[in-house]
Design goal:
Helices cover 20% and strands 30% of the residues. The chain is an alpha+beta fold.
Length: 325
């Protein structure tokens, strides 16, 4: 099959994001592999998501928490035959491999950091499915659906309609060249910006051990199961859910200044006491910085929130693509 012709773009990343379809190397994400006959049961007892519900054709978001219920990492998890693959922020992949291996004990599980061996590529936009259909026999149609191509890429369809392709690193360059004939290549930062606009957080070294999953809306994107039973940090996560309205939540915002993950946020209602923290931030094509910010809901509802200090730039909150009710 031949690929569709290239998009007619006004040029540049902004035009591609708004009017076309894009191709991005996801080199900011690492990959851990969990293999062995006990991998399913082991992960079910470690992760916030329902691992038992992850079949050969499905993926899920989730988190690995400390015993205090704070996220040490969040991730996208899928299966490839008898193994599980977990994509997470590259800067914390080695630390998480070491941390989670401590819980293996006598279980028949091997945890490997395969970030150098597996490459992830992101595809998004109105022509993404058409372009994929020209090079793979099966394209996932449903949110979080996964198709493994025989001898080729694994294709994951995200809930917002974008796709992630997982391939052997040795095959990634050729695949991207083939796709770039019909898709506009963009930098990874543009993909990260799309994650922000879609309300998908990524824990990095700057925000490790800071947030309970619900503070980052992980349950709103399917990353927390409240029915699966015990896992590390489960008691704290469950208690946070059953106490009712959370005091802190993650919101989408824009600020007319540079920002980065880990920056503190201050509400005028709380004075010099920090009201929250920036989870992820990227320059917006429309100016300033778009960010995912966990803040006190009281500050969000009845005050103004500022970046880095009470004298810092004010956050302008934007609607998330999902509800927090």
């Amino acid at each position: 099959m031949s690929l569709p012709p290239p998009i007619a773009s006004a040029g540049g990343d902004l035009a591609a994001l708004r009017f076309g379809s894009v191709l991005a190397p996801l080199d900011h994400l690492g990959v851990l592999r969990f293999s062995g006959e006990d991998a399913n049961a082991f992960l079910q007892g470690q992760l916030s998501c329902d691992v038992a519900g992850v079949g050969p054709s499905s993926a899920t978001y989730g988190a690995h928490c400390s015993p205090k219920g704070r996220m040490l990492a969040n991730f996208l998890l899928w299966r490839e035959e008898a193994e599980f693959l977990m994509s997470l922020s590259l800067d914390i992949a080695p630390a998480l491999q070491k941390q989670i291996t401590k819980y293996v004990l006598r279980a028949k599980v091997k945890v490997s950091d395969v970030s150098a061996a597996i490459s992830l590529t992101g595809i998004g936009g109105p022509r993404a499915e058409e372009v994929l259909s020209a090079i793979v026999p099966d394209v996932p149609k449903k949110p979080n659906e996964v198709f493994r191509q025989a001898g080729g890429a694994t294709v994951i369809r995200l809930a917002d309609g974008r796709f992630i392709l997982s391939t052997e690193a040795s095959a990634a360059a050729a695949l991207r060249r083939k796709l770039s004939g019909s898709l506009e290549p963009v930098e990874a930062r543009l993909w990260r910006w799309l994650d922000i606009r879609n309300g998908v957080p990524w824990i990095t070294s700057a925000t490790q051990d800071e947030l309970v999953p619900q503070m980052a809306n992980l349950e709103r994107i399917g990353g927390v199961s409240f029915d699966k039973g015990c896992y590390t940090g489960q008691e704290v996560v469950a208690r946070s859910q059953h106490l009712g309205k959370l005091k802190r939540r993650m919101f989408l915002a824009n600020v007319s200044a540079r920002a980065q993950a880990g920056d503190k946020l201050y509400g005028e209602d709380l004075g010099d006491q920090a009201s929250g923290i920036v989870v992820n931030a990227e320059a917006s094509p429309d100016g300033g910085t778009d960010l995912l910010a966990v803040v006190q809901t009281a500050s969000r509802e009845a005050s103004t929130v500022h970046l880095r200090s009470l004298d810092g730039p004010e956050l302008r909150f934007l609607p998330l693509p999902y509800t927090l009710a």
